[in-house]
Write a structure and sequence with these properties.
The protein is mainly α. The chain is built from 14 helices and no strands. The protein has 2 domains: 160 residues, Tetracycline Repressor, domain 2 (Orthogonal Bundle), CATH 1.10.357.140; 126 residues, Four Helix Bundle (Hemerythrin (Met), subunit A) (Up-down Bundle).
């Protein structure tokens, strides 16, 4: 059982609170881009359902990785890895919250949105999680799960058309320059845990940094697409261009700087600014 002293902290760790709170933004943005017109109550159900499904997926991920997390300095104090939360309780919590989130979205918005929510949880838990032990391409699979919430919002909004797919691509591409600096900074920990991240397979960091740069460069025109053909205004286009050039610039520093550890920190910090600012300006400018 979770002890009283650790209750709130353990909940935040088990549910990856900050990560899943940010993941709700693509759901909302996809809904608006698709032209959703449901009332405030239905929209609240959509966001709450997406959040609960994300909480459940995170708990299931940690349930599966509890032995590996226990080896890593960064994760060994997580509730399941440390033993503060029983294994059976972690599994039950993950399944219950995932099912509750899917059920809420199904009741409010139907099978397509609910099915995409199931796919998000399944890809994250049943494909991405075990792949981390096998291949560095797990990062791209994890990014697929991270981008699916945009399609959930689009399905709830009424149509998964080109602007929603564009949003999906933006979120997908953004994640690699976001995650590769993390995997580089914690490469020793990932190796200790048995995870085959690219920075573990290639300890020079060049392959991870090169991929981060390429994804950041490709993201520039993809992020500009809503301004070119999907109705976003000049304000969005200007912000997307500036953010994109900045993201590519920090990724280039990560690739070519001799102080790669420091460059990784700055790239990661910039990534936390890039996505919420871009999506909020897109919503405002529409």
């Amino acid at each position: 059982m979770i002890g009283r002293v650790h209750g709130w902290r353990d909940a935040a760790e088990l549910f990856k609170l900050r990560l899943n709170t940010m993941a709700v933004l693509p759901v909302f943005c996809g809904y608006i881009v698709a032209g959703g017109t449901a009332g405030a109550m239905s929209l609240t159900v959509l966001l709450a359902g997406g959040l609960l499904a994300g909480f459940g997926a995170s708990a299931l991920n940690q349930w599966s990785e509890r032995r590996f997390d226990a080896r890593m300095l960064r994760t060994r104090d997580r509730p399941l890895a440390s033993g503060r939360l029983r294994m059976s309780s972690g599994l039950a919590i993950g399944l219950t919250l995932s099912a509750l989130g899917v059920g809420m979205i199904h009741v409010a918005f139907g099978w397509l949105a609910a099915g995409l929510t199931v796919a998000t949880v399944a890809v994250y838990w049943m494909i991405y999680t075990p792949m981390k032990q096998v291949t560095p391409w797990c990062t791209e699979v994890g990014a697929l799960s991270g981008a699916l919430p945009a399609l959930i919002g689009g399905a709830a909004g009424g149509a998964i058309e080109l602007p929603v797919w564009n949003l999906f691509a933006i979120v997908f591409l953004w994640q690699m320059p976001h995650f590769y600096p993390i995997s580089w900074r914690y490469r020793a920990d990932y190796a200790r845990g048995g995870f085959r991240m690219l920075s573990v397979v290639d300890p020079t960091g060049e392959r991870a940094a090169t991929r981060a740069l390429w994804y950041a460069v490709i993201l520039v025109p993809v992020a500009l697409a809503p301004w070119i053909w999907s109705g976003a205004g000049v304000a969005y286009g200007s912000v997307a261009a500036l953010l994109g050039v900045g993201y590519a610039g920090f990724a280039a520093c990560f690739r070519f700087s001799v102080a790669r550890d420091r460059a990784a920190i700055w790239l990661f910090r910039y990534s936390l600014i890039y996505l919420p600012v871009l999506l909020l300006v897109l919503l405002w400018d529409r």
